[in-house]
Specification:
By secondary structure, the protein is mainly alpha-helical. It has 25 helices and two strands. InterPro entries: EXOC6/Sec15, EXOC6/Sec15_C, EXOC6/Sec15_C_dom1, EXOC6_Sec15_N, EXOC6PINT-1/Sec15/Tip20_C_dom2.
Length: 815
């Protein structure tokens, strides 16, 4: 029962649900019916729902049929009316079509005219709009065209200005156009192009001035030389203003207006062509040769682009590199003056350019940068000059170099560079110049001395006499009174040497010019150099001549005479130096000439050489001596070699008439002493082991000949018997043996007034032993006649006794 109730309840619920679904289907839009149908299919009463759906459809069909049946007659009536209206409508259509055809036919021309008017109005509006837009774009295009023209003609700074106007003023007004966007995109490229081109121009300029800096420097130095010449002309006139000359309108000759359209201002060569000037025409200014517009343009361009610091650093870096190249001297610079000149020209040209840049730009270079470069240049230049000038052996080249350095310093001083170190270095070169002068004058003196005939200068006329006196300060009243022909006491090398000393002084004076030295400093320099010339160069030359192997006595005598006169001329050299330096010799610290000492030393050397030469001649004659020490015969005349020797000495001393008396006397005494010493050595020679009293007698004759020569007074000025004292040792020794006065010798030995004071026991013993050997040898040969040789035996005993006593004297003397 309960189960049937439950089934009935479920069927009622299902029926209600189906009814709800049907209502929902009827009231819901077809597009949203899907969920409703899904709920049907999800249920279990699908068949029952279909039955209800079929039933509901049939009900609706019946209602539709009822409704149609109710309204059918009205529908038929309506259709009938519509058929009537269709006929009227067709008529109306035909009328409208006909009217339209007529209207179209009548309005065809009007339509055409209106269409043409429409097109004209459209074109007019487009043209007006186009003109407006073109008027807006035209300034932009004109500025861009101007920019391209300026770029094409390399007017980069104006182009940069045009680019700024274009970017900030014109392009914003037409920024929506495509071509403007292209222009905007090109602006950074154009800026870079201008920047690169201007930098390229700067590089060309730097390369050009590097190659032409010597020309710039040459012109600047030529200007300085002209100014110095003018200063020399007006030397006595007071100078107006500072001693340093201001630059010749140095910084007013250039047009710094970068927008100039002058072709000259747009050149990037850096160097302008200058034709050769005539000597009498004004030399163009150094800056006149250079077109600095590439530097100015590049500086302005980089400043506008905000890269000025980059530009300044690049410029300074490149110029420092160029400075190092300029300051590197060529390896063969010392060979010619042109090498030094080109070196100086390049340095001057470099600093003239930098000085101009300093004064015509603001901040591109500054004074600290210039000073740094100059310090580097000064140190490197001085080092190079020290090195290369040390190779110079030609004083003319050194002098020309000094003048060039002075001009170099004066030129740079005009531009405000400190050059004191250069003048200090010139003082070093002055010492080197003096050395080269001394070497040159050593050759000159050597040629003069080698070519001299060492004979008094003969003169045959008053003109010749005055010529010699004009060359050398000589006064001799006695010589002036003599008739022509006559002779000066000195040879030709005296006036020649004197004049060369003056030429040397002139050469020293030339170097001191323009060095800004005081008269005292110039005087001191000349005197010191002249002293070196006298004490070293001339002295060495004279010494070399005097020590020459083939020098003769005549030449030596003439050298002594010549040096005597040169010594007397030293006071005239002092006066000569005083006249050219205007410094009185009485001034404090004035150096004195050492010429007197030089010529005295040379004269003493010549005197010593005369003494040596005489002794050598005496030795040569003595080598001809051929004594027979075993002879018993006596020739009663002096040996031939000695006679020749005495004749030589007489002729030699006759030449000494012009020598100072003391020199001749010393030479004569020296010769006699050497002759006496040589004869003594000859007598005591170890190789002569035996000699006879006969040979001793012959030797005595030779000594007497020497004594006779000494008594004859070959040289005036000796007191009586003074010259004979040279032979006193020989005389006493020979008298002792010839007179055989041993008792007196032995008895008086050691007393101050003894007869044989000059006889040494050693010498007497040596000679006695030679005689003893000869007598013993003779006794052995004549032993068979011994009963007839009693006297000889007695004499031999006496010799032995004397020899023993002499040995006792010698031993007692040594003890």
């Amino acid at each position: 029962m309960e189960r049937s109730k439950m089934a009935e309840a479920e069927s009622l619920e299902t029926a209600a649900e189906h009814e709800r679904i049907l209502r929902e289907i009827e009231s819901t839009d077809t597009a949203c019916i899907g969920p409703t149908l899904r709920s049907v299919y999800d249920g279990e009463e699908h068949g029952r729902f279909m039955e209800k759906l079929e039933t509901r459809i049939r009900n609706h069909d019946r209602e539709i049929e009822k409704m149609c049946n109710f309204h059918y007659q009205g529908f038929v009536d309506s259709i009938t009316e519509l058929l009537k209206v269709r006929g009227e409508a067709q008529k109306l259509k035909n009328q409208v079509t006909d009217t339209n055809r007529k209207l179209q036919h009548e309005g065809k021309e009007l339509v055409i005219a209106m269409e043409e008017l429409k097109q004209c109005r459209l074109q007019q509006r487009n043209i007006s709009a186009t003109v407006d837009k073109l008027m807006l774009c035209l300034p932009v295009l004109e500025m861009y065209s101007k920019l391209r023209d300026q770029m094409k003609t390399k007017r980069h700074y104006p182009a940069l200005k045009t680019l700024e106007h274009l970017e900030h003023t014109y392009l914003p007004q037409v920024s929506h156009y495509r071509f403007c966007k292209v222009m905007v995109d090109n602006i950074p490229k154009l800026r870079e192009e201008i920047k690169d081109v201007s930098m390229s121009d700067l590089k060309d300029f730097l390369e050009s001035i590097r190659k032409h800096s010597d020309k710039i420097g040459e012109t600047a130095m030529k200007q300085a030389q002209q100014q110095r010449n003018l200063d020399n002309i007006v030397l006595q006139q007071p100078r107006i203003g500072s001693k340093r000359k201001s630059k010749k309108d140095a910084y007013t000759i250039f047009d710094t207006e970068m927008e100039s359209t002058s072709p000259k201002s747009e050149q990037d060569s850096g160097i302008l062509d200058v034709e050769d000037e005539e000597d009498d025409e004004e030399v163009p200014g150094a800056q006149d040769l250079v077109d600095f517009s590439p530097v100015y343009r590049c500086l302005h361009i980089y400043s506008v682009l905000g890269a000025r610091e980059t530009f300044e650093n690049y410029y300074r870096k490149q110029r420092r590199k160029q400075a190092r190249l300029v300051l590197q001297p060529p390896s063969n610079m010392h060979e010619t003056l042109d090498g030094y000149r080109k070196y100086f020209n390049q340095i001057v040209g470099f600093f003239v350019v930098e000085d101009h840049i300093l004064h015509t730009t603001q901040g591109l270079v500054n004074r600290a940068y210039i000073d740094e470069l100059w310090e580097m240049a000064l140190s490197k230049t001085i080092a190079a000059l020290r090195t290369h000038s040390s190779y110079c052996s030609d004083p003319n080249l050194v002098l020309d170099l000094k003048n060039l350095i002075v001009l170099f310093a004066d030129t740079l001083q005009v531009y405000g560079f400190p050059v004191n170190q250069l003048f200090d270095m010139l003082l070093e070169i002055r010492d080197q110049y003096s050395e080269t002068l001394l070497k040159k004058w050593a050759g000159i003196f050597r040629n003069i001395l080698d070519s001299d005939n060492y004979s008094p200068i003969p003169v045959t006329s008053e003109e010749m006499y005055k010529k010699v006196v004009g060359q050398f300060p000589f006064q001799d009243t006695e010589l002036e009174k003599q008739l022509f022909p006559k002779k000066f006491p000195f040879s030709e090398f005296v006036p020649k040497v004197y004049n060369q000393i003056k030429e040397f002084i002139y050469a020293c004076l030339k170097f001191s010019e323009d060095l800004h030295l005081s008269s005292t400093e110039v005087d001191d320099m000349i005197r010191k150099s002249t002293n070196l010339l006298l004490t070293r160069t001339l002295s060495n030359s004279l010494q070399n001549v005097i020590k020459r192997k083939n020098i003769g006595l005549t030449e030596l005598v003439q050298i002594i005479i010549n040096t005597t006169h040169l010594e007397k001329s030293c006071k005239y050299l002092e006066e000569f130096i005083t006249n050219i330096t205007n410094v009185l010799p009485e001034t404090v610290h004035t150096t004195k000439l050492y010429g007197t000492t030089t010529f005295k030393d040379a004269r003493h050397a010549a005197e010593e050489e005369i003494y040596t030469n005489l002794n050598q001649k005496i030795d040569q004659f003595l080598q001809l001596a051929d004594y027979d020490w075993m002879t018993g015969d006596l020739d009663n005349k002096a040996s031939d070699y000695l006679v020749d020797l005495i004749a030589f000495l007489r002729s030699t001393f006759a030449v000494f008439t012009h020598l100072p008396g003391k020199v001749a006397q010393t030479a004569c005494m020296s010769a006699c002493k050497h002759l006496a010493t040589s004869l003594m050595q000859l007598l005591l020679e170890a190789e002569v082991r035996q000699l006879t009293l006969g040979a001793l007698q012959q030797f005595n004759l030779d000594v007497r000949e020497c004594e006779q020569f000494a008594r004859s007074g070959p040289v005036p000025g000796f007191q009586e018997d003074t010259l004979q004292l040279a032979f006193i040792d020989l005389r006493q020794l020979l008298d002792l043996f010839i007179q055989w006065d041993w008792s007196t010798y032995l008895a008086d030995y050691g007393q101050p007034n003894c007869k044989y004071l000059r006889v040494n026991p050693v010498t007497a013993l040596a000679l006695l032993e030679k005689i003893s050997r000869e007598m013993k040898d003779t006794s052995r040969k004549n032993n068979m006649f011994a009963q007839f040789r009693k006297n000889e035996r007695d004499k031999q005993k006496l010799i032995d006794t004397v020899a023993k006593q002499l040995r006792g004297l010698i031993s007692s003397h040594h003890s």
